Amino acid sequence: MNKIRWGILSTAKIGLKAVIPAMQKGEYSEVTAIASRDPVKAKEAAAAAGIPRWFGSYEELLSSPDIDAIYNPLPNHLHVPWSVAAMKAGKHVLCEKPLSLDIAGVKKMISVRDAMKVKAGEAFMVRTNPQWLAAREIVRSGGLGRIVSVTGHFSYFNTDPADIRNRKEWGGGAMWDIGCYPVTTSRFVLGEEPRRVVCVIEDDGKFKTDRLASAILDFPSAQVIFTISTQQAAYQRMQFLGTEKRLEIEIPFNAPFDRPCRINLWGSGLSSKPLEVKDMDVCNQYTIQGDEFSLAILKHSEVPVPLEDSLKNTKVLTALFRSARTRKWQNV
Q: Could you tell me the domains of the chain?
């Protein structure tokens, strides 16, 4: 088998607009089918995306012998139950972030994965993006000197009451949607786990979701500080500051696929221009994500973001929520 046959669980926007078109360009990934609980939506989505087969229920897709792996972009509260169902059907699973809204959900997925002997991972596309691999290499090789701190910001403006990001009962809110990114990338680059965290959260009075949050993560080697918001002017940056240089990733999360990503390296002065600019090769991080997961299946190797890593990330995120409630530092 040269390609993994993928089935898409739902007609979610992120799948149709970003992930599916990218995976269809993959060397080791083949999008074979898509499913919806509405047969009309499934048929229309398959036709629009050029997908050969469609199913009018998730169960039909999971029972198909012609599907090797499932991509799960369902709303957050459905990630665990349908990923578990897919694994129990013998399918490998790539599930959108956040994998689970609690620690117990991740542990359940680990248990089912081990019992069924399938591959399962979280869809943090940034973890296989060349710009993040380059940033990690620069930091870990001492290219910035001794790493001291990390700062991040991720925001957009969305007050649509119908959007799943604004539905608390579906796992909406800033922390689960975008706060997970500065957490996972900081852990990825530093190669460490935070010992304790503190967080301040502002909730939306209408949606009851967290719309603004600022956090400090105390790592053994550095302090990580970030702010996220779902009701703020769109902006994103990640910076890693060492004793000698500063590294800045211009578009760290929604990396463009039609132009190069850029990493800026700044010296110790206050120059208005970076000391060095690293233009990365043009790529689509969703294509890379799909192919890397497919290769892990084909080569019987580890997936890019295994469930054990998801468990660590979820522990940090849940600790941030605890801190906001208690107004105290929380151990991770």
A: 4-124+287-301 (3.40.50.720), 130-282+315-331 (3.30.360.10)
